[in-house]
Design a protein that fits this description.
This protein is mostly helical. It is built from twelve helices and no strands. Helix 4 crosses helix 12, helix 7 packs across helix 8 and helix 11 runs antiparallel to helix 12.
């Protein structure tokens, strides 16, 4: 009898949470609209943002549009209203794979470059962190040997490595992959060490009693027991990697969602900047949800 009641209560809580989220979103949109609307007799007066846009266009050798042509232009140079943001987002969504040159690529292409770099650096970090974490977690000597280096290198900002990477690697894209690797390796390594070291001693004693080989013991006893902690480190590393790639691409330029955001800022298109920020957040949430599902699959509940 308690099962259906618990399910009903759980569904009810989720429904209430969804309604609260929708209400909060509505309040934010109302505040946004109130803060950006320019109704009234002074609406026709040019704002400082419009003046800056005209000055920027003149510096770039372009003739700024004036009068009705300027008002009918679809380009939003000031802080957009929700309606203007929706219109600009619709324009971006209508042509996600456009490729009109290095400074006019669709967001889907730029997102693909970013995800490819994140995947490359993340896989390399995974290949290094998990085996090394097993070695350090299973050996007291290895722990004492590597721990000083880990403690010194772990707090260094990933972007601090960018100048060194650019000087030694020479390629901006490869340097971004290196930055993803260096920021992803530490959470996975530390969580792997902690998970391996925390495996119950009696399980290891049983494996020794049965004369299980070290490799088999690592794969059949230690790995399943440490898997939840390892996946937690992988989840944290992915969040950090997605955070860092945007900043790295803003620095090195060329391609990627970070470069797309910075290029739109240089074009004085705050609507596209907000679209990029929203897109980065949605992709980050999707990646986190994937690792949350993986974490549930490897977590054993008694």
């Amino acid at each position: 009898m308690n099962g259906p009641r618990r399910i009903t209560a759980r569904i009810s809580i989720r429904q209430k949470a969804a309604l609260c989220s929708i209400a909060l979103l509505a309040v934010l949109l109302i505040v946004w609209q109130a803060a950006t609307c320019t109704s009234g007799p002074d609406a026709s007066v040019k704002s400082p943002d419009d003046a800056e846009a005209v000055e920027y266009a003149m510096l770039m050798g372009k003739i700024p549009e004036t009068g009705a042509a300027s008002q009918s232009s679809s380009k939003v140079t000031g802080f957009p209203t929700p309606a203007q943001f929706a219109a600009e987002a619709s324009r971006q969504l209508a042509h996600p794979f456009r490729d009109n040159g290095p400074n006019d690529k669709g967001f889907a292409i730029q997102l693909g470059y970013s995800l490819a770099r994140v995947a490359a650096g993340y896989v390399i970090a995974l290949a290094v962190a998990v085996p090394l974490g097993f070695l350090i977690g299973m050996s007291r000597l290895a722990f004492l040997t590597f721990n000083p280096f880990i403690q010194v290198l772990k707090p260094i900002s990933p972007l601090a490595w960018m100048p060194i990477a650019l000087y030694t690697i020479k390629s901006s894209s490869t340097s971004a992959i290196f930055v993803i690797f260096i920021c992803s390796v530490w959470p996975m390594l530390i969580n792997t060490v902690f998970g391996v070291a925390a495996v119950r001693r009696d399980w290891l004693n049983v494996a020794r009693t049965l004369e299980v080989t070290p490799l088999r013991r690592a794969l059949r006893v230690i790995l399943p027991a440490a898997a939840p902690t390892i996946v937690t480190g992988m989840r944290i590393s992915m969040g950090i990697a997605w955070l860092v790639i945007v900043a790295a691409e803003m620095l090195v330029g060329g391609t990627g969602i970070g470069y797309f955001l910075w290029n739109e800022w240089n074009n004085l298109s705050l609507a596209n900047v907000l679209f990029s920020v929203l897109l980065i957040g949605l992709v980050g949430m999707a990646l986190d949800l994937l690792f949350a599902q993986l974490q549930r699959k490897v977590t054993y509940v008694d």
